[in-house]
Amino acid sequence: MQIVDLLTPRGVIPQLRATGKKQALQEIARRAASITGSSERPIYDVLAERERLGSTGIGRGVAVPHGKLAELTRFCGIFARLDRPIPFEAVDDQPVDLMFVLLAPLDARTEHLTALALVSRLLRDRTICEKLRGTDNADALYALLTDRTESHAA
């Protein structure tokens, strides 16, 4: 599995404007709904429920919200570069400005964990995060995320 298997160019939001976690998740759910054909509300609900279990903020300005939906038949990734960092209750208490949302089919078990590990490994790379923060061009962001898949393959 590679990032290109999870993310399409339509799944990149280069300048997400949000003042908090709830608003960011709502905006991402809206984009995910348009990509998957699913309803926005269940997408938001699964992401919000996961956040209630504990923040998906993994540190250094990065969050990886995720969840499973019965109506999905394949993985859907949404990458958002926020126009300014937002509070996210991350493990290091730092605000978040890079989010990779991962939505999986309900029956994806080990594949879901593999995908999460892949995304987490990619976004723990300080160099890639600096480059992602350095551009607000959707095509450039997509290229940065997908061109590195071989070195981050699961």
Question: Could you describe the 3D structure shown?
Answer:
There is one protein chain. The protein is an alpha/beta fold and 154 residues long. The protein has one domain: 3-Layer(aba) Sandwich (Mannitol-specific EII, Chain A), CATH 3.40.930.10. Helix content is 40%, strand content 26%. It has helices at residues 21-36, 40-53, 110-123, 126-133, 138-147, and strands at residues 7-16, 57-59, 62-63, 66-69, 76-86, 96-105. Strand 2 (57-59) and strand 3 (62-63) form a beta hairpin. Helix 1 crosses helix 2. The longest helix has 16 residues, at 21-36. It is globular, with a radius of gyration of 14 Å.
Poorly predicted runs of 5 or more residues: 149-154
Helical element count? 5
Q: What is the CATH class?
A: Alpha Beta
Indicate the percent of residues in helices: 40-55%
- Report the C-alpha radius of gyration, rounded: 14 Å
Q: Kindly, what is the distance between the CA atoms of the first and last residues, rounded to a whole number of angstroms?
A: 6 Å
**DSSP E strands, number:** 6
CATH arch. level architecture = 3-Layer(aba) Sandwich
**Strand content range:** 25-35%
Biggest sheet, open or closed, and with what strands and sense? 6 strands, mixed
Mean pLDDT: 91
Quickly count the domains: 1
The CATH superfamily name is Mannitol-specific EII, Chain A
Based on Cα principal axes, name the global outline: globular
What would the CATH topology be?
Answer: Mannitol-specific EII, Chain A
What is the N-to-C order of secondary-structure elements (H for helix, E for strand)?
Answer: EHHEEEEEHHH
The secondary structure category is alpha/beta
